[in-house]
Write a structure and sequence with these properties.
The complex is a heterodimer of chains A (about 190) and B (about 210). With about 190 residues, chain A is mainly α. Chain A has helices spanning about 1-15, 25-30, 35-65, 75-95, 100-105, 110, 115-125, 130-160, 170-185. Chain B has about 210 residues and is mostly helical. Chain B has eight helices and two strands; from the N terminus they run αααααααββα. Chain B has helices spanning about 5-15, 25-30, 35-55, 65-90, 90-95, 110-120, 125-155, 185-210, and strands spanning about 155, 170. Chain B has a two-stranded antiparallel sheet. In chain B, helix 4 crosses helix 6. Chain B is globular. Classes of the chains: A mainly alpha (about 190), B mainly alpha (about 210). The interface of A and B includes residues 180 and 182 of A.
Chain lengths: ~190, ~210
């Protein structure tokens, strides 16, 4: 049990990193990585929502969609659950933890359309994970996103000041440095446990 | 707004992937063979056009405050329809694209066009916008597929079962291609170079117009 959870965690953070090997959540990854402090904020917000969304969508699937034979409505149901969840988290944080809300606030609405969140919900079902496995996969997948976006934001701060061909200035050179980071992450693909 | 300028916007000046930088996840993830690229492009074009028509028809009915939620539900409905149709009639494509078909729901192109265009224009204009933006997306995907497949696998037009049993037409001899181009790394590198090319092209066109 513990070994399986550890395998899932290691896989989600390093071997099958959501950004670098599964291409989920590229938009916020490219959009919010210009400064490292905003990248940290976004990373934590995504981690939090991914863990919550994994739990909520797993329960919705098991106790609502399967008994009613509505599995084909998964996509619609999940995106609604995620949108509602993000809204709830936002209201809850605003009322009870204003400091955290100030830090994460602007990123929360963006997360609804982050494909990593809907992606993790769909992958949990596809891989037929149990409840605990789903939550662990969601949480560690978020940590993988956090790791990727923080590493990349530090690289990007330096790349922005570098001298590169004019056509590559800005976005293209950022994509290529992300590619090089992905290359580094490919080194983890040899990792196997058990 | 003329037909011609809308067409040019979708294909070049406001190409969704290369200029607006939307929908990059799918553009990098599934462009490993021409079959996948064209399949994904057509699916997105259909969903984008239908949701544009629907949203623009309902633009005066949907209350402003909950418009984003309403758009997402409409889009998710069309995505589910396309997903089920693909599973039934093109199971090979459905298997290749996997989780990226349901993920069209959160593809920023569709929500972006709904918010920026369909909610403010007539049904006819929104239909055209959906078709042209969809074609722009498809063209960008095809360009990525051609580059990545040729350099990474040494073939062109792979995946179509009627061409060489799905292996495609071999251009480079076996063993010589750089496998890395069809791995995730290749996606980042190819898209980076393509966007750089489109920026360079855009600048040149601007200069030419300025000279005139």
């Amino acid at each position: 049990m513990i070994a399986k959870l550890f395998t899932i965690a290691l896989g989600a953070i390093l071997v099958e990193n959501f950004i670098f090997s599964q291409f989920l959540g590229i938009c916020p990854f490219m959009g919010v990585s210009k400064k490292s402090d905003t990248a940290v904020g976004m990373g934590f917000a995504v981690t939090f929502v991914m863990a919550l969304a994994s739990a909520a969508t797993w329960a919705v699937n098991k106790y609502l969609l399967i008994p009613l034979n509505l599995e084909y409505m998964q996509t619609v149901a999940f995106i609604l659950v995620i949108a509602a969840l993000v809204q709830l988290v936002e209201m809850f944080l605003q009322k009870s933890v204003p400091a955290l809300y100030q830090a994460l606030g602007i990123y929360l609405p963006l997360i609804t359309t982050n494909c990593a969140v809907l992606g993790v919900a769909l992958l949990n079902i596809q891989k037929s994970y149990t409840f605990i496995e789903s939550v662990v996969y969601g949480f560690t997948g978020g940590l993988g996103f956090l790791l990727a976006i923080v590493l990349f934001s530090v690289v990007r701060e330096r790349v922005d000041n570098c001298d590169c061909p004019k056509a590559f200035k800005g976005f293209p050179i950022a994509l290529i440095s992300a590619g090089l980071l992905a290359l580094a992450f490919m080194g983890f693909s040899g990792l196997k446990i058990g | 707004m003329s037909l011609k300028s809308q067409f040019q916007d979708g294909l070049l000046r406001k190409n969704p992937v290369l200029v607006q930088l939307l929908g990059m996840c799918s553009a990098m993830a599934i462009t490993t063979s021409l079959f996948n690229g064209i399949g994904m492009g057509i699916s997105v074009t259909i969903i984008l056009t239908l949701s544009n028509i629907f949203i623009s028809a309902l633009r005066k009915v949907i209350p402003n405050k909950i418009r984003i939620a309403a758009y997402i539900v409409i889009i998710a409905g069309f995505v589910t329809m396309v997903d089920l149709l693909l599973q039934a009639f093109l199971p090979a494509l459905s298997e290749n694209l996997g989780v990226f078909i349901p993920l069209i729901v959160v593809n920023c192109i569709i929500l972006g066009r709904a918010e920026a265009f369909a909610s403010k224009h007539t049904v006819w204009q929104s239909t055209l916008d959906g078709i042209f933006q969809g074609i722009g997306y498809t063209v960008a995907l095809i360009a990525m597929c051609l580059i990545r497949e040729l350099l990474g696998n040494g073939t062109i037009a792979g995946g179509f079962s009627f061409i060489n049993n799905g292996d495609g037409i071999r251009i480079l001899p076996e063993g010589s291609p750089a496998l890395i181009m069809i791995l995730p790394v290749g996606g980042f590198l190819t898209l980076g170079c393509l966007i750089a090319f489109s920026q360079w092209l855009g600048k040149r066109l601007e200069q030419k117009e300025a000279v005139k």
